[in-house]
Amino acid sequence: MEFHELLKSKGPILLDGGMGTMLQAKGLRMGEAPELAALEHPEWLLEIHRAYVQAGSQILCANTFGANREKLARTGKTPGEIIPPSIALAKKAAAGRALVALDLGPIGQLLEPTGLLPFETAVDIFKEEVRAATEAGADLVMIETMADLQEARAALLAVKECCALPVMVTMTYEERGRTFLGCSPACAALTLEGMGADAIGVNCSLGPREMPPLVEELTRWSTLPIAIKPNAGLPDPGGGGYDITPEEFAESMAQLTDLGVKLYGGCCGTTPEYIALLARALKGKEIRQIPRHVPAAVCSATRAVPIDRVRVIGERINPTGKKAMKEALKQENIDYMLGQALEQTGAGADILDINVGLPEIDERAMMIRVVKAVQGVTDAPLQLDSTRPQVLKDALRVYCGKAIVNSVNGDEEALEAILPLVKKYGAAVVGLTLDKNGIPKSTQARLDIARRILNRALAHGIRREDVYIDCLTLTVSAEPEGAAQTLEALDCVHRELGLKTVLGVSNISFGLPARPLINQNFLTMAMTRGLDLPIINPNVDAMMAAVRSYHLLMNIDTDARDFIAAYGQAQVSTSITTSAPSSAPAPGTSRDLGELVRAGLKGEAGEAARALLEQRAPLDVVDHVLIPALDQVGADFEAGRVFLPQLIQAASAAQAAFEVIRARLSGQPGAQEGKGPIVLATVQGDIHDIGKNIVKVLLENYGYTVIDLGRDVPPQEVLRAARQHQAPLVGLSALMTTTLGSMADTIALLRREDVPCQVVVGGAVLTPDYARQIGADFYARDAKESVDVARKVIG
Amino acid sequence: MSLSALSIDENEGLRYMGCPPERADKALREQARLACSRLAQTARPRWAWRCFDVTAQAEGVRLSCGLLLPGRDLRHHLELCSRAIIFCVTLGVQTDELIRRAQSQDMLQSLALDCAADAAVEQVCDQIETQLQGKFPGCFFPYRYSPGYGDLPLALQGELLALLDAPRRVGLTASTSHILIPRKSVTAILGVADQPIPQFSRSCLGCPARENCGYRKSGGHCGIS
Question: Which of A11, A545, B63, B115 is the S-S candidate for B16 at Cβ 3.0 to 4.6 Å?
Answer without folding.
Answer: B115
